[in-house]
Amino acid sequence: MSGAKVISVMNWKGGVGKTTMTHHLGTGLHMLTKEERLEYLGSEKMPRILFVDNDAQCNLSISCLHVEKYEDLVYKQNIPTIYDLYKLFICNESPVVDMHNYIIKNQVRMDNRRIFMGMDLLPAHQELVYLDMNIAMNSRASFQSGLISKEIYKYQYLNDILEPVCSDYDYIFIDCPPNLGYTTLNALYASEYCLIPTGLDHLSSYGIASLLKEIDRLNTEFATAVPDHPMIEVVGIVANNVEENREAPKRSQKLIRERLQDSYHELMFEPYLTRGDGIPNASEQGYPVYADRSANALKQGDLLLGILREFLDRI
C-alpha cells in the first residue's frame, strides 16, 4: 500500500500490552511538541491517524471511545465494523465499498471533554472471534502452483480493505489478537512494520524467538507469492508491566531483560513501560494516560512518549 505507514502491534501471548502500545503510540503522536513533530515527522502539522481494531476483544475500540459509547454505537445503533468489511471481502472478490461508512471519524477521546481531531477508528466487533474459521472455510478456484500462491488471497483481505483510505492517513496502527491466525496474518500482510510488546516474565518472552522466525518465514512466503510485496520490518521489542526497585527493573525482570538484549540485541527498546494504575484508570474512562495528572500516570505518560520517540527514530 502507498501512503500511510502501517504498523501491526502483535504478540501471540495475551496480556503483554498490545492495546496499550497501539493506543498510546497513536495518541502520543498528537502529544509531541511542534519541534518534535518537525524533527521526527518532518512537518509541524498534526499527523492523521487511523486505529484499526483487529481483535475480537474490542479493547482498542473501547479505549478510544469509552465502553458506553462503543456499546451504543456497535450494539444498539448497529453501525458497521471491521467484521462486516471482512465478510464483504470474503464473499466478493472486488466489492464496491465506501470506507467512510465504516470509519468513525474524529471521536477518539483525548480526555472527558475533548477529542483528537484527525484521529479515526475502524472499530471491532466480538464476532471477529469467528473470522479465522470463516477465512479457513472460504475457497477460490486457482491454477497457480504452491499452497501459499493458491491461497494468498486469504492473507490479503485487510490489505484490500485499507487500500482505498491509505493515502488519507500518515499512520495506521493495527491492534492484533493474541494468536497467529488468519486475522493476525492479514494485519501482517497489510503492514510495513511490526512492534512486539512483551512482559518481563518467562512465559511472555518465551515465544519471541518463534515469532520472529515466523515473521521471517512469512516474508519469504509473501515475496514468493507476490514478488513486489514489501518486507515486514520488525521495529523492535518493548518491555511492558515492569516493576521497579530504585528506578530500575526488579532483579528477576532485570535478568530477563538482559537475556532478551543478549538474544535480540538492537531489537530490544531501551525505554520500557512500568506497571501502575495510571493506564488502567485512564482506559476505564476511555482516554489515554496522557490526560491523567496523577503521579503514576504522569510517569507512565513520559515513559510512553520515550517509547514513541525511539519508535519514530527506528522507522
UniProtKB/TrEMBL annotation:
Specify the species.
Syntrophomonas wolfei subsp. wolfei (strain DSM 2245B / Goettingen)
InterPro entries assigned to the protein according to its UniProt record, in alphabetical order: AAA_dom, DNA_Partitioning_ATPase, P-loop_NTPase
Per the database record, which ranges form the AAA domain? 4-222
Domain of life assignment: Bacteria
Concerning Pfam families, the annotation shows:
AAA_31
What is the name of the protein in this document? Cobyrinic acid a,c-diamide synthase
